[in-house]
Each structure stands twice: as structure tokens, then as C-alpha cells.
């Protein structure tokens, strides 16, 4: 007898309750299989982003944030990471108690902070103001908490009349355990490639070590056999953050090669124990200490490091696709062959601010449209001033805006970022 006919004959001999039970069992089996598949995917592929890709104005895929707007986080604890107590880690837990989504190691959080302003005169009250700032996540993804590590920024030694870092000093002096902060979801285009077959070279200058700690922790937890080379440049042992943690990781993971570089070792700093190299992280050091072959480079640090090392790596022959970097603040890195839209050359370009009722002439003197607007008394919301937080995102009514480097914030269609944008043609803005 044909198998299908035999099955029909057997089913035809069943009672109605028996047939109903068989159908219910089959449906239950399908449901269990579907739930099991979903759980397996979540448990075995933790590195995949939870946000779904969308399409940016340029047609490239971009990721939606894990949550929209601001979310309340409570400070669980604070920990200083260096002997000078200039770098403090803040551990954050969501007030709503929901599990945190995974992020891409290297990304940052955006904070909305109510900071004290400067008194207008003697005896006058200090009014608080809200500022927006971005800080790199400094640990691997954890569903229970996030960590950021923030370095106190003093007034420049050569210009003591300048104010110290507003937000960093606010964190160090005022943000305490149990305080609640407003935080946007992790974002940013600076993150490690998930391919374990390509060795990663992580280069952090000063507080630029923070995204490297996130990348390093994630790699060791999920790709323990991946070859990693960490170059950490700083002045001396007083500023050496995460020292004990890095030494322990290097001792327990043979695939991690640690290169600590002091530019000005202190009297108590010992070569070979506290640091491996004296000077700066440069291409010559990399030539001497890296094996031949392809590497993915990840560089984060202050402007002096970025503006010298990143172009030098490109001149050394590192393909642009293997060269990833993030500069502090508005510092830009210019590379030949990098695919970024160019702003207009210096010269008179008409810029219309529709809501303000002003039409002005851009003459190229200002570093950005945000600086241009502020110089002419036009108020625009702003935060990080480096293309990360999106606070200055403004509707572009006509014309084109160019950028010297790709903003970390994913700009919505028909909008532009004033803090890193310059007119590429006559433009009209909604501001």
C-alpha cells in the first residue's frame, strides 16, 4: 500500500477526540520548535545587534537605536582607575530593571546632564544648564549594567583662565552613587570587526583606552583565540588606567600582546615592569613589534595622536578598510582616498536660517555651521560638537552640506549636523 494512503486509512479510523488531540500535539510541537530556535539564536549569537537596520539618506544601511529617546539609569558605583584619581568609572543600571541590549564594542553612550553654570557676578545665584555629552563604553556588553570611564579635564596649564571640562568635572564632583542620569542608547560607527580570523591592533592614547577596553573584553570573552595587540600610550604610571586588569589579562591570555608606552616615565616607573616602550605610539614602533600580515587597526586618542598616526598608517600601506579610528572632540583626520563628501571651498556661499529670518554669507572662516550660527547670534541646540550626539541635527530645506569626516550620529533624511557640517552649496536651514 502507498504510505500516504495508509496514513489516510489510519487517520480515518480514529475517533474525533483522538484526531483533535493529534492536531493539538502537532501544533504544540511547532510552537516549541519555534521558541527553541529563537532562544538558540539569542544565546549563541550574542554579538549580533538587536536593532534592525534602516536606510540612511545616502542609501547605506544604518541601525536603529536599541531604545528611543532618553532612558533613566542609576549609578551603582564609582571606581577610580588610575593612581592620580583622574579617571573614574561609573557603573550604570537601568531604573526600569529591564535587561540591557548588546552593543557593538567601541560604541558610546550619550548623556543629558544638568550642570551648574558660571555665576554672572559676586553673590549671584548659579543657574543650572543642560548639556549633552558622549562617552565611550569601557567594558564588554553586559545585560545587567553599562560602564563608562571619564577623565577629569582641567583647565589648560598654558591658559589657566580657560574653564575646565564642564561635563567631566560634573561627573567627578557631583555624580554620586544612586544618582539617576538620562542616557541615550549605545551608538557610533567605531566598533571592532567580528571576524576572528583577522588579528586586531588596538591603539589607545590617554583616555582613548576606554573603547579599547570594551573591544578587548568582548574579544577575550567571545573570541579567546583571536590575536590581539594592545598599544596604550600615556605619560607615566600615575595616569596608567586599568593597570592591574590589563596585566592580568595579558598573563592569562597568550593571544594578547600588551605594549605600554610612557612618554615621560616618573621616578618610580620601571621599564619592563610598568611599561615596555618609552616615547610615543608611532609607525616605527608598530613596524618593530607587529608580525607581517594583515591586521585590523583601531585607533582612538587626542588630536595630536590621531592627526599623525592615522595618516602615517595609511601611508605605510594599511588599506582604508582595515583602518578604523575615533578622534576626541571636533578633531578631524584627513586621508587621501577616503570617501567623505567635501564641504565647499572658501568663498561666499549663501546660508539662510529660515526660522531666525536671517540670510548670511559663509566666507569659510568658521570651522562648522554651528560656529557660524553662534558667531552671528543664532541659537542652535548643541552637545558634543563632534558629530556624535545629534543635538544640533537640523532640517536641511535646500542645498547640500558636506563633512570632513563621517559623523557618528546617523543623520535623518533631509537633515544635517551643524557641528561638523559646512555648506557644499548655497543652503537653507530650518533654524
Automatic annotation (TrEMBL):
Keywords: 2Fe-2S, FAD, Flavoprotein, Iron, Iron-sulfur, Metal-binding, Oxidoreductase. It comes from the Bacteria. Residues 68-193 form the FAD-binding FR-type domain. Residues 349-431 form the 2Fe-2S ferredoxin-type domain. InterPro entries: 2Fe-2S_ferredoxin-like_sf (IPR036010), 2Fe-2S_ferredoxin-type (IPR001041), 2Fe2S_fd_BS (IPR006058), Beta-grasp_dom_sf (IPR012675), FAD-bd_FR_type (IPR017927), FNR_nucleotide-bd (IPR039261), MRET (IPR050415), OxRdtase_FAD/NAD-bd (IPR001433). Its cofactor is FAD. PROSITE patterns: 2FE2S_FER_1 (PS00197), 2FE2S_FER_2 (PS51085), FAD_FR (PS51384). The keyword Oxidoreductase applies. It holds the Pfam family Fer2. CDD domains: fer2, flavohem_like_fad_nad_binding. Gene3D superfamilies: 3.10.20.30, Nucleotide-binding domain of ferredoxin-NADP reductase (FNR) module, Translation factors. This is Oxidoreductase FAD/NAD(P)-binding domain-containing protein. It comes from Sphaerotilus microaerophilus.
Amino acid at each position: 500500500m502507498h504510505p500516504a494512503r495508509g496514513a489516510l486509512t489510519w487517520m480515518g479510523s480514529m475517533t474525533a477526540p483522538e484526531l483533535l488531540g493529534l492536531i493539538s500535539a502537532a501544533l504544540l510541537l511547532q510552537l516549541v520548535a519555534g521558541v527553541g530556535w529563537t532562544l538558540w539564536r539569542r544565546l549563541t549569537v550574542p554579538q549580533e545587534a538587536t536593532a534592525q537596520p534602516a536606510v540612511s539618506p545616502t542609501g547605506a544601511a544604518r541601525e536603529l537605536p536599541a531604545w528611543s529617546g532618553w532612558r533613566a539609569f542609576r549609578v551603582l558605583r564609582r571606581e577610580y582607575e588610575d593612581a592620580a584619581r583622574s579617571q573614574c568609572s561609573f557603573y550604570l543600571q537601568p531604573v526600569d530593571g529591564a535587561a540591557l541590549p548588546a552593543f557593538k564594542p567601541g560604541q558610546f553612550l550619550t548623556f543629558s546632564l544638568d550642570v551648574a553654570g558660571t555665576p554672572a557676578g559676586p553673590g549671584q545665584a548659579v543657574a543650572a544648564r543642560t548639556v549633552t555629552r558622549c562617552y565611550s563604553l569601557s567594558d564588554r556588553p553586559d545585560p545587567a549594567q553599562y560602564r563608562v570611564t571619564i577623565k577629569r579635564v582641567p583647565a589648560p596649564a598654558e591658559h589657566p583662565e580657560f574653564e575646565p571640562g564642564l561635563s567631566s568635572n560634573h561627573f567627578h564632583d557631583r555624580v554620586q552613587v544612586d544618582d539617576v542620569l538620562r542616557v541615550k542608547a549605545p551608538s557610533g560607527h567605531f566598533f571592532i570587526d567580528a571576524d576572528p580570523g583577522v588579528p586586531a591592533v588596538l591603539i589607545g592614547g590617554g583616555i582613548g583606552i576606554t573603547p579599547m577596553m570594551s573591544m578587548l573584553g568582548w574579544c577575550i570573552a567571545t573570541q579567546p583565540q583571536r590575536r590581539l595587540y594592545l598599544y596604550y600610550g600615556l605619560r607615566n604610571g600615575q595616569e596608567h588606567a586599568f593597570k592591574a586588569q590589563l596585566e592580568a589579562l595579558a598573563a592569562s591570555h597568550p593571544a594578547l600582546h600588551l605594549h605600554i608606552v610612557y612618554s615621560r616615565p616618573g621616578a618610580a616607573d620601571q621599564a619592563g615592569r610598568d611599561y615596555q616602550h618609552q616615547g610615543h605610539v608611532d609607525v616605527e614602533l608598530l613596524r618593530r613589534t607587529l608580525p607581517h600580515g594583515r591586521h585590523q587597526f583601531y585607533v582612538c586618542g587626542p588630536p595630536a595622536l590621531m592627526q599623525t598616526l592615522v595618516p602615517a598608517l595609511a601611508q605605510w600601506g594599511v588599506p582604508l578598510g582595515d583602518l578604523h579610528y575615533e578622534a576626541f572632540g571636533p578633531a578631524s583626520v584627513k586621508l587621501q582616498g577616503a570617501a567623505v563628501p567635501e564641504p565647499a571651498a572658501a568663498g561666499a556661499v549663501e546660508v539662510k536660517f529660515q526660522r531666525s529670518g536671517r540670510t548670511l554669507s559663509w566666507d569659510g572662516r568658521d570651522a562648522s555651521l554651528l560656529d557660524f550660527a553662534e558667531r552671528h547670534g543664532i541659537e542652535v541646540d548643541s552637545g558634543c560638537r563632534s558629530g556624535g550626539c545629534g543635538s544640533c541635527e537640523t532640517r536641511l530645506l535646500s542645498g547640500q552640506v558636506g563633512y570632513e569626516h563621517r559623523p557618528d550620529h546617523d543623520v535623518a533624511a533631509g537633515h544635517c549636523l551643524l557641528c561638523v557640517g559646512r555648506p557644499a552649496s548655497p543652503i537653507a536651514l530650518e533654524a
